[in-house]
Each structure stands twice: as structure tokens, then as C-alpha cells.
Amino acid sequence: MARHFGAELVSPAVAWLCSEKCEETANIITASAGGFARMQFFETKGVQFDPTKPVTVDMFDAVYAQLADLSTASPSPLGVLGDADQRLKALGLI
């Protein structure tokens, strides 16, 4: 099975991502045994506490089922902040 996992079966994607043909950005490409796919992270609607006030373990525990509810999941916004700006705007904090 190991013979199906050589670098030559991944390098076409790497080369394409580095080429002028590639107009994509911020995508995650998986590659394994000659197969390729785009990976997308999903994020639930979650909850937003007021970041100017303390957040406790009990508060987190009380909302865990709500934030873990995958029925509210949608593709995560690109970038390390995700949708933090939208959540903080909704609280009037930015």
C-alpha cells in the first residue's frame, strides 16, 4: 500500500497551487494516493459572550449544547478571526 503514497502523487497539486494557472487562495487541498479534494471547515452558529465581562466554566457549560449543535453549521469564514467581527458588532462592541 505504501507505494501508492509517493510524493509524485501529491506534487501536481503543489505545482499547480504555485503556478500562474491557480487563482485560488486560502483553500485547503488534501492529497493522498493520487486523490485530491478541497477541505472546508465548518463552524456552528455558536454563542457570543460579552468579552468585556468574565466568562466562567459554568457559563460555558450552560451553552455547550447550543454551540455544539451541528444543525447550525456553515462553512467557516476564511482567516483566523472567522466571524468574530460580526459577533462583536452584534454586541455593539466594534
Overview of this protein structure:
With 94 residues, the chain is of the alpha+beta class. It has three helices and four strands, in the order H-E-E-E-H-E-H. The protein has a two-stranded antiparallel sheet. A two-stranded antiparallel ribbon has the order 3-4. The longest helix is centred in the middle third of the chain and has 11 residues, at 57-67. The chain is elongated.
Please sum up the structure shown.
With 94 residues, the protein is an alpha+beta fold. It is 27% helix and 15% strand.
* Strand arrangement, major sheet: 1-2
Q: Number of folding domains? A: 2
Rg over C-alpha atoms, rounded to the nearest angstrom: 20 Å
Percent of residues in helices: 25-40%
Total strands: 4
Structural class: alpha+beta
Give the termini distance in whole angstroms. 53 Å
Write the element-wise H/E pattern from the N-terminal end onward: HEEEHEH
Keywords:
alpha+beta; two-stranded antiparallel ribbon; 15% strand; elongated; single chain; 3 helices; 94 residues
Topology:
Elements lengths: L10 H7 L10 E5 L2 E5 L2 E2 L13 H11 L6 E2 L8 H7 L4
Antiparallel strand pairs: 1-2, 3-4
